[in-house]
Amino acid sequence: MELAQVGRVLLFVGVLIAAIGLALVFADRIPLIGRLPGDLTFGGEGWTVYIPIGTSILLSLLLTAAFSFVSWARK
Fold first, then answer.
1. Are 49 and 75 found together in one domain?
2. Same structural domain, 20 and 41
3. Which of 4, 21, 46, 60 has the fewest Cβ atoms within 10 angstroms?
């Protein structure tokens, strides 16, 4: 692998990590994320289990649409 390719991969990984960090910082300000129908929360004294089924489905649909659009636009 050439040095230029390694640099591009490292740059992409860095941008991806920064994007995930920003999403986590601003996640509380996005309405409905984590509180959609289908998101399950179980808890007791000192423990909580959170299963974001509805949020996962919505995120999957949005990412599929975004990647399909990018793929279509590149043709």
1. yes
2. no
3. 46
Amino acid identity at 71: S
**Amino acid residing at 60:** S
Using the structure block, give the residue that is written with the tokens 């659009």.
69
Which one-letter amino acid corresponds to residue 17?
Answer: I
Strands 39-44 and 47-52: antiparallel
Domain residues for the domain of 71 are 37-75
* Structure-block tokens of residue 72: 């279509």
Residue for token pair 């509380």: 28
Give per-residue pLDDT as tens, 23-68: 888 877 777 777 888 899 999 999 999 899 998 998 899 999 999 9
